[in-house]
Amino acid sequence: MPHDSRFRRELGQQLRVDSVRASAAAGSGHPTSSMSAADLLAVLVDGHLRLDYSDPSNPDNDHLILSKGHASPLYYAVLKAVGAIDDAELLTFRKFGSRLEGHPTPLIPPTDVATGSLGQGLPIGVGLALAGARLDRTGYRTWVLCGDSELAEGSIWEAFNYAGWAKLANLTAIVDVNRLGQTRETMFGWDLDVYRDRALAFGWHPIEVDGHDVDAIDRAYDEAQATTDRPTVILARTVKGKGVAAVADQPGKHGKPLDDPDAAIAELGGERDLHVSVPHPEKATPHTFAAPGAAPPRYELGEQVATRAAYGKALAALGSARGDIVALDGEVSNSTHAEDFRAAHPDRYFEMFIAEQQLVAAAVGIQVRGWVPYASTFAAFLSRAYDFVRMAAISRADLRLVGSHAGVSIGQDGPSQMALEDFAALRAVHGSCVLHPSDANQTVQLVAEMADRRGISYLRTLRGATEVRTPADEPVHIGGSRIALGPDATDVAVLACGITLPEAIAAAQRLAAEGIRARVLDCYSIKPLDRDAVLAAADECELLVTVEDHWSEGGLGAAVLATLADAGRKATVRRLAVQGMPGSGTPAELMHAAGIDADAIVAAVRRS
């Protein structure tokens, strides 16, 4: 009997029982964190959530994000209640090979994103809400269940800030204020007024509610859906471990199964087999954007063009060719040149301001709906959002990141802006690719290739202009490279990327005057590296020299050494990379001081 208070109370108890059962079967889990929010989700799925669990791809489905991902037993108990899984699968929780992992991932539909690293669900929900309001333009709502402990995360407040500013009325956050964290009481315990005042300050509509009063919860959800000028946050006072005296509101019970699950189940009224018919949305047709077409930009050999400028023009052209391309930027679009896309396609551009966690999270949320986002900022500042990138890989997200102004070659701005870790960080992300084009024509082709690549893609662009050496019609692709000079040279191979490519060519020309023949390999794809080209250089040349504007750890040199080791090849390799902490200066001064310019390459070869 749907929408009946007694049914909802019984459903909440079933969700508690099943959370206890799943955790007991696994011998681990977070049942008490699940029990506090059981009534909140019972009411949500019984009458408010519109989601066709038999058709997760329905474009007008609501989206439910479990930001407090450790409450996965509750989430899986809901999936059982709505018929998405059966009881046998529920009891495979945390078992090897089960879809029901310790924290939810998209392996179990209709889970949009992986959660478990706290503070991520709400920022991703902002992205989904933006997609609904401005891209799909359909009626779906994004619901995010948050824990009160994660409200200490700065990323949560980036989300509150942005959603309030953007007036995302299709976003509802539900905060399970159960007072207890992992080791102690949270900052504000059950003081809902503190959270209310903060939500008001950020432009949200707050509703305080008893999180175990199903009628009050129902009214709160109705009020949230009726609020059309701002996002809503429901602040629900709950009891951790609700319903079982041995754990209810007791510290020290976090993250462990109950000591006596059978007694707890009996105290909760025993097992139940209630089923919920979740309302299905009507099939909506998402909005599409016109794609009149545009030829990608082409650059003449010898032109001096910054790859960041080529990125902006290439993305704008790609947006004209494809209506699914979206751009986001961290309020540096005049430097990254994302402003070119904004000027051409303002309806598909999102200014995310100086909030890099929200920038990446919004891109993750937007790609859930099949859009193709490119998120850009200074490469150094992507490190602030690294956990979001890591989690995006677990979400099987398709994400395109673009970092400009990297390396000592940016010059006078100094080391805080130099992003000397980006290759290593992004190479370490599962399934990623890392690209560093040396000229504008390479950039144009790689930007286009990124659009259809699955997983995490990262493109580093340059602040300063470089000479166009790649013909516009020469194929450039992820996993490729090009011989920029000396294809038949066998004395030494210099492997360079980005800003070090012109230095390598200058060094090769100087070495030629001394009778040393150098091959210069432009490794514009660092991951995947062009294995065949690297192995050919190792087999055919007496010495390999790698040179990069990056720390020596984890970048191009490390990728070359790994390729040689994996292939069982022996080669003499000298790695040139940034070693000491740089300061301010001209690009030429800093590259020389770092030992990654033509002088350093020549010296490295002469030492052989």
Strand order of the largest sheet: 8-7-9-10-12-11-17
Please state the structural category: alpha/beta
Count of helix runs: 23
What level of helicity do the residues show? 25-40%
Average pLDDT reading: 97
| Low-confidence residue ranges | none
**What's the end-to-end separation, in Å?**
83 Å
* Approximate shape: elongated
Number of strands: 19
Biggest pleated sheet? 7 strands, mixed
| Backbone CA Rg | 27 Å
GO molecular function, one term: magnesium ion binding
Family: Belongs to the transketolase family.
Subunit structure: Homodimer.
Keywords: Calcium, Magnesium, Metal-binding, Thiamine pyrophosphate, Transferase
Question: What is this structure's SSE topology?
Answer:
Blueprint: H1 5-26, H2 31-36, H3 38-45, E1 63-66, H4 72-81, H5 87-90, H6 121-136, E2 142-147, H7 154-166, E3 171-177, H8 192-201, E4 205-210, H9 214-226, E5 232-237, H10 261-267, E6 304-306, H11 307-321, E7 325-329, H12 333-336, H13 339-344, E8 349-351, H14 356-368, E9 372-378, H15 379-382, H16 386-394, E10 399-404, H17 422-427, E11 433-435, H18 440-451, E12 456-460, E13 465-467, E14 482-485, E15 492-496, H19 500-512, E16 518-522, E17 525-527, H20 531-540, E18 543-551, H21 556-567, E19 573-578, H22 587-594, H23 598-606
Parallel strand pairs: 1-2, 2-3, 3-5, 4-5, 7-8, 7-9, 9-10, 10-12, 11-12, 15-16, 15-18, 18-19
Antiparallel strand pairs: 6-13, 11-17, 14-16
Provide an overview of this structure.
With 608 residues, the chain is of the alpha/beta class. Helix 1 crosses helix 3 (38-45) and helix 6 (121-136) packs across helix 14. It is built from 23 helices and 19 strands. It has a 7-stranded mixed beta sheet with strand order 8-7-9-10-12-11-17, with helices on both faces. Strand 15, helix 19 and strand 16 (518-522) form a beta-alpha-beta unit. Its cofactor is Ca(2+); thiamine diphosphate; Mg(2+); Mn(2+). Belongs to the transketolase family. Keywords: Calcium, Magnesium, Metal-binding, Thiamine pyrophosphate, Transferase.
